[in-house]
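Lab notebook page, bench 4
Experiment: in silico fold of construct C2
Operator: M.H.
Input chain length: 179 residues
Purpose: comparison with the prior construct
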Amino acid sequence: MLAVKNLAAVMVMADQRVLLIDADMRKGHLHDSCGQISSGRLSDVLSGKLDPREVVRHSELENLSWLSRGSAPPNPSELLMQAKFTEFLEYLSENFDLVLIDTPPILAVTDAAIIGKRAGTTLMVVRFDVNTPKEVDIARTRLASAGVTLKGTILNAMEKKAANSYGYYGYYNYAYKTE
């Protein structure tokens, strides 16, 4: 979730109206990091309990809004497969420049594949030194077999000491020659 929140903050700094959705209706915790409760949001809209215009919350960052997972439903995948989810995404796309959806891991449940089929772009967040190359490959294959095209990967939680040893992070030295 942190990688997606950071991406949302960067996009807000680029003058985009951004909505961040916590679509992990089983274990999502965006509401915790915003100091709010989870109920009354995504799952409640998809189950028809709330009107879509009532659920978006605004953060302290201008142009950044968010939507928590809602009440934990017994059937998150089924809710996401309904036409109501697609209609909700269309409504949100009309009101925001960018809608970022954080999903549960593709290796745990099918929700990411269901959402990925309806999203314009799919990125995979990979945690450094936690997700193995085999896991990343299996996740990519699962998305592809569901008809989802993976557009990129975000490497999260890179450790500075490891980054330095690989030469990806740290100080750059430039030398200018005069002629």
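Observations: The domain at 2-159 is CATH 3.40.50.300 (Rossmann fold). The chain has one domain: 2-159.
Next step: discuss at group meeting.
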